[in-house]
Design goal:
Elements (H helix, E strand, L loop, with lengths): L5 H24 L4 H19 L7 H15 L2 H11 L11 H50 L6 E2 L7 E2 L2 E2 L1 H16 L4 H21 L4 E2 L11 H21 L18 H15 L3 H25 L1
Antiparallel strand pairs: 1-4, 2-3
Helix pairs in contact: 1-2, 4-5, 5-6, 5-8, 6-7, 6-8, 7-8, 7-9, 7-10, 9-10
Length: 311
């Protein structure tokens, strides 16, 4: 049996601790005060395990101390924004009415993180060009889609909360850039695979965002949460297209810098794979949560296999 890498051990334990915090949130929603204790324990524990979970067998304290010092000295600005993006997901169960505010804030943090990550590798000029074209292409696809049904199918943003850009929620074009960059990094620069990862992400977005009335489907051929098969093909095409544009503008964005930590902006995708099914559980969509977890998990596994073959 292959041995798990230290990074995988730390990630698994950290997500398990976040799961404890999530369980606590569910208990709080059920008026069980014990849930607050689980939240208070799970959130900080996830941070500790993310740093030194692979040293639980011995030397945990020393390892935690050394890695904390290293983290403070080596953490790039985009990493703090990734952390903020993740933290902003935590209050959602405790403040359901704030879903829109927290969703926009977390997506904005992710967008700025993606911009900073790209700027470190290709400079500010090309970073802004990447972001502008990605957001512009994503926004154009949404505007055309809501008016013509191409490329996603028949849907509407009529019930979406402000702020809107040309009738589209602001968080949507911001997300097209940030999550596409994450998927592109996971895929090792393969536009087709990045598009597939985005389509698998949308498997969870559709039931969650329609439940929150961010968009409504009226397509005559629904396949999943009101969305037709065309929607997922459209997500693949738009995601792959944006990925192709990013690789042409700044292929260096895919390369790790000398002496850099192994963590890259790709980590945004597995964070979504954790929180998105959780959000579906909170709105009572248990089957959709399970399918989303399976779909995004398969995407992560496929990306790992494809990258390993190239290596």
């Amino acid at each position: 049996m292959p041995r798990l890498s230290p990074t995988l051990i730390r990630s698994g334990l950290a997500f398990a601790a976040l799961g404890v915090a999530f369980l606590g949130a569910l208990l709080v929603l059920a008026d069980q005060s014990a849930g607050w204790a689980l939240i208070a324990a799970g959130v900080p524990l996830s941070g500790l395990l993310a740093l030194a979970g692979d040293a639980l067998g011995g030397g945990f304290s020393r390892t935690l101390q050394d890695r904390t010092h290293q983290l403070i000295s080596e953490t790039c600005p985009w990493m703090w924004l990734i952390a903020l993006y993740a933290v902003l997901h935590v209050p959602v169960p405790l403040w359901p009415e704030g879903f829109g505010v927290l969703g926009l804030a977390s997506t904005a943090a992710l967008f700025v993180g993606a911009l900073l990550y790209a700027a470190e590798r290709v400079g500010w000029g090309r970073s802004w060009l990447m972001a502008g074209l990605a957001c512009g292409l994503g926004l154009s696809a949404e505007v055309i889609g809501t008016r013509t049904g191409v490329p996603f199918g028949l849907y509407s943003y009529a019930t979406a909360p402000d702020p809107l850009v040309l009738g589209v929620p602001l968080m949507v074009p911001l997300g097209w850039f940030a999550l596409t960059l994450s998927g592109l990094l996971l895929s090792g620069g393969r536009a087709w695979l990045a598009g597939l990862l985005l389509a698998l992400w949308d498997v969870g977005l559709e039931p969650l965002m329609t439940a929150q009335r961010y968009w409504l489907w009226s397509d005559p051929n629904p396949l999943w949460a009101g969305a037709p098969l065309q929607n997922f093909l459209g997500w693949w095409a738009v995601g792959a297209g944006i990925s192709w544009v990013i690789t042409r503008i700044g292929p260096e964005v895919l390369r790790a810098r000398r002496g850099e930590t192994q963590i890259s902006f790709a980590v945004a995708y597995p964070i979504e794979a954790f929180f998105l099914p959780g959000g579906l559980v909170l709105v009572g969509r248990y089957l959709e949560a399970a399918v989303t977890l399976l779909a995004m998990g398969l995407g992560l596994g496929l990306a790992r296999v494809v990258r390993a073959r190239r290596a």
